[in-house]
Amino acid sequence: MKYSVGIIGHGNYPEGIKSALTLLSGAGDDITCFNLNEQTTHEQFKKDVTNFLNTNESAIIFADLTGGAPFQTIAQVILESAKENQYIISGISMNAIFDLYLKNSMDQLNKDNIEDQINHVIEVSIPMMQYLPSSKMVADADTNESSDEGCI
């Protein structure tokens, strides 16, 4: 079972994520983006995502911010429709979006495993978030040493 994929968010976030997915995967025509920006009213945004969810019984929606207006809008629509195969995943990293998108593209997601797959991808993506403090970069540059610790 393939899930329809939607990306919602503020500004041009959805288009940016779609662009990155297309660059990395060579695909992306099957992704629908919903930008909530200066040209889109909240009413039009709700109408557009409602139409998407009504025409796609099985859907994965990636949202930029948990609790943001796009997230709240689509969560309300999904809760009101009470459909079982529609999922919102928010505040998620590009690594996790890419992983789930590829699994979906290769028909590895279905109604029996999707929740486990989503939870697994979120779990393994957390350790992938790293930072390298500037003090470490300066110290490494001074000693001409390099370390992969903390690097992406």
From TrEMBL:
Q: Which GO terms describe its biological process?
A: phosphoenolpyruvate-dependent sugar phosphotransferase system
* Gene3D superfamilies the UniProt entry points to: Phosphotransferase system, mannose-type IIA component
| Record has Cell inner membrane as a keyword | no
Q: Does the keyword RNA-binding apply?
A: no
The protein's name in its UniProt record: PTS fructose transporter subunit IIA
Q: SUPFAM superfamilies, from UniProt? A: PTS system fructose IIA component-like (SSF53062)
Annotated InterPro entries: Bacterial_PTS_sugar_comp (IPR051471), PTS_EIIA_man-typ (IPR004701), PTS_EIIA_man-typ_sf (IPR036662)
> Which domain of life does this protein belong to?
Bacteria
Originating organism: Companilactobacillus zhachilii
Recorded GO CC terms: membrane
Picking any one GO molecular function of the record gives: transferase activity
Name the PANTHER family on file.
PTS PERMEASE-RELATED-RELATED, PTS SYSTEM MANNOSE-SPECIFIC EIIAB COMPONENT-RELATED
Task: Specify the PTS EIIA type-4 domain's residue ranges.
Answer: 2-129
UniProt keyword list = Transferase
